[in-house]
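Researcher: Batch entry, complex prediction.
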Amino acid sequence: MEAMDIVEANYIKEIIAKGLRDDGRKAMDYRNIKVTKGVLGNAEGSAQVELGMTKVLAGVKLSIEEPMDDTPNLGNFMVSAELLPLASENYETGPPSPESIELARVVDRGIRAGNCIDLESLLIEEGKVWTVFADIYVLNYDGNLFDAASIAVMSALADTKVPKVENGEAKREERSAKLKLNNIVSSCTFGKFNNTILLDTNASEEKAMDGRITIATDGKAIRAIQKGLKGGFFKNEIEDAMNIALEKHEFLKGVITGE
Amino acid sequence: MGGSSLNKPTLVINGKRTDGRDFNELRKIKITAAPLENASGSAYLEWGNNKILAAVYGPREVNPRHLADSTKAILKCRYAMAPFSSLSEHGRSGPNRRATEISKVVKEVFENAILLSEFPGSQIEIYIEILQGDGGTRAAGITAAAVALATSGIQMRDLPYAVSVGKIGEDLALDFNMIEDNYSDSDVPMAISPRNNEVLLLQMDGHMTKEEMSKAIDMAIDAGKIISAEQRRALKELYELRGESNHLKGE
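Model: Structure tokens for the complex:
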């Protein structure tokens, strides 16, 4: 870490120990969240999310492919993530970093485990299904990429329309039906600082953060969890995080569906 | 998850699991400490049908040098499944996305456990090679790597262990084998520091209530007593053997 980062991290730790946050929020407050759907015309679905100054774009493309051997009647779903070099001075071009792979896989797991996409509706004919590609483009990093990306992908899926199929080929100009969703999953990511736990950490806070835990829920059940970074969590801290994530679901669901 | 519902086998027969275990029963675990000569530390672990080698190199010079941290050692971790490790097709070599993610979260477990500030400017490498996989390989790999680190003499806060808890129907079950892993819909691998039960790795997907998640953590902590005991037994066995051979040499 650069010297200035260490100074900043120490400052953040000091004020968190006093029960404060550098942007004045309470421990379990989100920053402002803004979702704009349909920002791209060529993609079958898209959404841009602003979470504070974190900006994430998600684009959805559908392709006709063969089904997986073990799921001949189901469509496929794949999430990828790019930490674009234009999003932060710390991101570089090159092959996918472990951070971007983790981000994509954690978003994927919540949505997959939540059975959000009706994969049965993506069967076109025997041997032909739609594969749903969701690509996460991080445009500006200011912390908590996990929740921003999860909201962006869920919102882009809610925005997705399936192209018409003629003679086994996609007619992309004509998008008829909306992609069928069965469930909405939201994710809440918490940072741990000594014994303090904060929701929706910003970039400054992430310099000082010991541990991270992401809880994806559909408001009823826990659908996915990912603990990251070196700091550990005690059982009661995990239970508190699950409770908050379940409580926040209605709010986040509203953000995603726009209702 | 990831299993299909096609040809789903029966996972519970007369209250017992496919391999005859109870819901809270571990598979048999056997660890051999320091089987490899060149590595700074190593361990071989058999956990049910899993066969895993873990090895540690370092602390040594950082490569490339610009990655060095003057305040602490940096950690590198590779978890990889051998191309011949699964019952299905020959696997592609090189780390895939799954392995890359597992390597990252395993690294974070040991960033917690190792006293990295004891070795500023150096790197420590942890290698986990799955020679034969039968479900729960990341948990087994972490358990093996902890022993490998202990045999390397690198200072640690604790000797972490790992185990997974899954859900078969409505019941939680400890330590899924491959069939259970493929055909059930929740799996929760956890790594835990036994000195204070801090959870160092936690991944989950599927469908669980928060009460079930709490119970899953309790089951892992309970099972940890047996896993920790085997880790310690393997280490004791190594040093007792070394003690005897030194004695014979008149040292």
